[in-house]
Amino acid sequence: MDRFKVSSHQDGRRLDKVIRGIWPSLPLGAMMKAFRKKQVRVDGVRATFDQRLMEGQEVVVPWEPAEDPVVVSSKGSLETIYRDDHLWVIDKPPGLLSQPDSKGGDSVVTRAQSIGGEFKPQAVHRLDRNTSGVMILALSGKVLRELSSMWRGREITKTYWALVSGEIKEAGRVDAPLLKDQDSNKVKVDRRGQDALTLYTPLASGEGCTLCEVVLVTGRSHQIRVHMAHIGRPLLGDIKYGPPHQRERRPMLHARSISLSMAATGDLLFEAPLPDDMVQACLKRSVDLDSL
Fold first, then answer.
1. What does the H/E/C string look like for the chain?
2. Which CATH number does 70-153 carry?
């Protein structure tokens, strides 16, 4: 037996859909049998498979607790933040490509698609290889088209946490066009480039650095890294746009959260905790993470 509280992500969703998201390997017949035998209860009352849930309700089911949400493919593991019939949200580790750069190469998409299914999961957006955090995969063509349209229409809010060099005391914005050199894969501020707007807010400061919350209004390549370097606050570990010799092995950038609203799911907010290397970088510089 197991029990769980209905989260804000699950509010308004059908009970059977929520159960399938938590126990994806549970046979449909076994789930429906439990409903017929009155073994699934919501707030102590017999539940029906199609009833809508409300945040805070307690659901009791006759199965063992769900295993740790890590899906393993032939290429490696993917840590699941959330999954239902529409979306698969994962916490991408640093060092892993979003899309393969060669046939059969390792990536988030390669790992997801090797698991199987009628529709091969598709990435709705990308994170740079060395950026960690929230990444969304679509589990149907319809959802892929809807989310892609929302992305282009800037209807999805993306929030990052960045550990930058120097002290930032007040919130600010960087409104500077960006131009990419395809040969060098390097971006620079240039009036001939595309419009780009970045908003930033300091969260906590340490010894010679600041942990910032950064919101992308636009989504240009390397936007956060270039914009923060442009104002003299490059990301720690970013040798491409910052000082060439640094202790960190990657730019200290993490996709902290994504919020969106879909007709099928309602309002959703997905968050990923800071990865270990960013936590250690903060602790070494006395950045107070307990206040966050």
1. CEEEECCCCCCCCEHHHHHHHHCCCCCHHHHHHHHHCCCCEECCEECCCCCECCCCCEEEECCCCCCCCEEECCCCEEEEEEECCCEEEEEECCCCCCCCCCCCCCCHHHHHHHCCCCCCCEECCCCCCCCEEEEEEECCHHHHHHHHHHHHCCCCEEEEEEEEECCCCCCEEEECCEEEECCCCEEEECCCCECCEEEEEEEEEECCEEEEEEEECCCCCCHHHHHHHHCCCCECCCCCCCCCCCCCCCCCEEEEEEEEEECCCEEEEEECCCCHHHHHHHHHCCCCHHHC
2. 3.30.2350.10
> For the chain, what is the total number of helices (H) and then of strands (E)?
6, 17
> Would you identify the CATH topology of the domain 157-256+283-291?
Pseudouridine synthase (3.30.2350)
The C-alpha atoms of residue 43 and residue 233 are separated, in whole angstroms, by 51
Show the tokens assigned to 211. 């942990």
CATH T-level topology, domain 2-61: 3.10.290
Fold match flag (70-153 vs 157-256+283-291): yes
Examine the residue annotation and report whether 128 is marked as an active-site residue of this protein.
yes
| Nearest CA among 237, 229, 230, 231 for reference residue 169 | 231
Global confidence as pTM: 0.74
Per the residue annotation, which of 11, 16, 128, 238 is the catalytic one? 128
pLDDT, tens digit (0-9, with 9 covering 90-100), for 17-76: 888 777 877 788 888 999 999 999 999 999 999 999 998 999 999 988 766 555 555 567
Q: What is residue 118's predicted lDDT score, i.e. its pLDDT?
A: 62
Residues in a beta bridge with 189:
178
Q: Which helix (H) or strand (E) holds 200?
A: strand 197-206
